[in-house]
Write a sequence for this structure.
């Protein structure tokens, strides 16, 4: 399928063809005469004029010049810098994958369908769930869909969500919940960074459809999934575990006690760029199959008994069931899911474990290097590769000083967690972070001396 | 005859047979043949309260998912558990394959339903033969 607009000549030809059977239609105005005048746009669309190929290339070069190069970044918080093997681009940029349309026709789409099936299989093995869909838009919308799915499964309409679920995921969830009329109760955290179990127990009622936690949570702390599952299940609620950092599954036990896992798979071979694309995933127990949103690829046999793949259970999708569909998602992130599949194939089970261990070691070193001049909060529970740091000066001020040395510091947390104060930020180290960068960050942090300490001295 | 005379019918293609104050509900032979191979039947729970004309579940075939509508109001007293593993029974014998039983709330609601003859006429008008 070509995505080229029709030319004036095409238009004339089409009009002429219409005119032949319907003589009263001679012009575009005649064609649109059934649309009331007040709904007809009488001006051109406010879009820039067309550009030549060389102009477009120049424009994108200009954009590219805005990229900061040579900076060391300690940002994580749901968007992770991991190495992307070159084989990913060399495969996904092949025309068969890059430009292929939704594989509604299995007879011409076996390659794409097989890759999606393998993606689902790998996601199940990683998350400890029985079934997975062929991807969602991203981790935040996936989490919101998981919540709505729990509402359908349980016939209950309230959700309990830990405040240590990514704050931006919670904003997206709130947007969905507001229109679905799902009241949300939020539950805080305790001194070790884990969810407050007593408050959680108190928040779950006989009307709670689901409890949602994130593990590793927004502070990098790994939650006690089994204990939380038991608590939710005791009151008939489902447990949804959100995962923002998929690489953690290399060392963290899969959340097999959960009913639904909603994961962001960006870490698996999807480069960070200006806001996306990302790759959400929903995986769950098989008994919830018919309430799972999105697209699912199934394995089957053709007339000759040969193995083949098809989109299945699409009868509940929006293009067939309209307003009664399980979800308004009618597509998936096929190409991005393909990147994930290739990444996982390249790394394999052992490779993923080593990668995760590498991340742990790096963040351990970073924690040690930074804690001379700052304090690591939420000690006492297992963590993956992120941690909350309390610096002597304000996080914004500290980051400004670091930026002057080409260091992008941790994410200031006060915006979402005012109770933590202005001096806290979330730091992350991955396998991409070098020891040199971490030493430089520690040295730069040391140089940021708060004004009041100077006065005191 | 495809439509038993002792059943009542809806325009949404459900049938109900009544004994005392208990109604038994299924879908018609016309419905099953229009849907094609049925792969899943989604039913309410025992104790759920149904309202006449409102949806209470769905039937999924390889072609489509269709809602089921309650012929009359009442409280669900039983669901056909066999359909969980063998939804194809609906295709095999729609008249004999019940989906749920309910305790009728108001027996006069039955008067608004179609007789077998009326339903047959309705179907032939709908399909144009």
């Amino acid at each position: 399928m070509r995505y080229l607009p029709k030319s004036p000549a095409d238009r004339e030809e089409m009009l002429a063809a219409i005119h032949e059977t319907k003589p009263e239609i001679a012009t575009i105005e005649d064609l649109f005469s059934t649309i009331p005048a007040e709904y007809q746009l009488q001006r051109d669309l406010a879009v820039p004029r067309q550009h030549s190929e060389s102009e477009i290339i120049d424009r994108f070069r200009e954009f590219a010049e805005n990229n900061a190069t040579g900076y060391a970044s300690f940002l994580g918080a749901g968007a992770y810098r991991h190495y992307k093997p070159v084989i990913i681009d060399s495969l996904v940029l092949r025309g068969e994958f890059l430009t292929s349309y939704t594989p509604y026709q299995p007879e011409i789409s076996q390659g794409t369908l097989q890759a999606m099936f393998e993606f689902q299989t790998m996601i199940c093995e990683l998350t400890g769930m029985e079934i997975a869909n062929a991807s969602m838009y991203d981790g935040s919308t996936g989490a919101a869909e998981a919540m709505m799915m729990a509402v359908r499964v349980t016939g209950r309409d309230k959700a309990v969500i830990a405040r240590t679920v990514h704050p931006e995921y919670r904003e997206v969830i709130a947007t969905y919940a507001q229109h679905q009329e799902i009241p949300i109760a939020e539950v805080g955290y305790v001194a070790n960074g884990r969810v407050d179990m007593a408050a959680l127990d108190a928040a779950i009622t006989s009307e709670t459809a689901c409890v949602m936690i994130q593990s590793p949570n927004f502070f990098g702390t790994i939650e006690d999934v089994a204990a939380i599952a038991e608590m939710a299940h005791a009151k008939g609620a489902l447990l949804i575990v959100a995962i923002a950092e998929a690489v953690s599954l290399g060392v963290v036990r899969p959340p097999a006690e959960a009913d639904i896992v909603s994961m962001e798979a960006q870490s698996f071979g999807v480069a960070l760029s200006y806001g996306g694309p990302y790759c959400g995933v929903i995986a769950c127990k098989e008994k919830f199959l018919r309430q799972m949103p999105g697209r699912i690829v199934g394995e089957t046999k053709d007339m000759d008994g040969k193995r083949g793949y098809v989109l299945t259970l699409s009868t509940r999708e929006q293009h067939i069931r309209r307003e009664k569909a399980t979800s308004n998602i009618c597509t998936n992130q096929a190409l991005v899911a393909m990147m994930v599949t290739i990444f996982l194939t390249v790394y394999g089970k052992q490779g993923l474990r080593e990668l995760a261990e590498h991340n742990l070691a790096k963040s351990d070193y970073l924690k040690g290097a930074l804690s001379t001049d700052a304090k690591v909060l939420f000690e006492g529970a297992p963590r993956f590769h992120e941690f909350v740091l309390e610096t002597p000066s304000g996080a914004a001020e500290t980051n400004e000083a670091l930026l002057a040395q080409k260091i992008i510091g941790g994410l200031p947390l006060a915006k979402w967690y005012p109770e933590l104060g202005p001096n806290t930020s979330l730091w992350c180290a991955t396998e991409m972070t070098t020891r040199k960068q971490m030493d430089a960050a520690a040295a730069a942090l040391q140089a940021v001396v708060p004004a009041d300490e100077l006065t005191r001295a | 005859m495809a439509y038993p005379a002792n059943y009542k019918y809806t325009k949404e293609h459900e049938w109900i047979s009544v004994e005392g104050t208990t109604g038994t509900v299924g879908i018609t032979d016309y419905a099953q043949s229009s849907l094609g191979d049925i792969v899943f039947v989604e039913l309410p729970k025992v104790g759920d309260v149904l309202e006449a004309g409102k949806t209470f579940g769905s039937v999924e075939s390889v072609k489509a998912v269709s809602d089921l509508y309650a012929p009359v109001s009442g409280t669900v007293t039983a669901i056909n558990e066999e359909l969980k593993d063998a939804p194809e029974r609906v295709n095999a014998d729609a008249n004999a394959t019940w989906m749920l039983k309910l305790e009728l709330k108001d027996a006069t609601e039955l008067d608004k339903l179609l007789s077998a003859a009326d339903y047959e006429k309705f179907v032939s008008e709908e399909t144009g033969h």
